[in-house]
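User: Here's a structure from my thesis project, written as structure tokens. My advisor, Dr. K., wants to see whether a designed sequence matches the one we expressed. Can you design one independently, without my sequence as a hint?
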């Protein structure tokens, strides 16, 4: 599971449904992203911009955002 994505969602006080809507994807698709499915680069960049953190941080590749 990509815990950093969920942690940032929680910090923003947003529901999974709200994030999915902002990304233009279904809730099911968002859930597949956080459970390890490949995330299209445009969606990953959108999340990075939305949360103000790096893509590597969201993917758990770095500890520093």
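Assistant: Designed independently from the structure alone:
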């Amino acid at each position: 599971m990509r815990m950093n994505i969920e942690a940032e969602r929680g910090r923003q006080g947003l529901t999974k449904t709200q994030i999915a809507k902002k990304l233009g994807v279904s809730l099911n698709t968002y859930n597949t992203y956080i459970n390890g499915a490949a995330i299209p680069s445009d969606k990953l960049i959108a999340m990075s911009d939305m949360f103000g953190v790096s893509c590597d941080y969201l993917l758990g590749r770095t500890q520093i955002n």
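When you compare it with your expressed construct, this may help: The chain has a mean pLDDT of 94.
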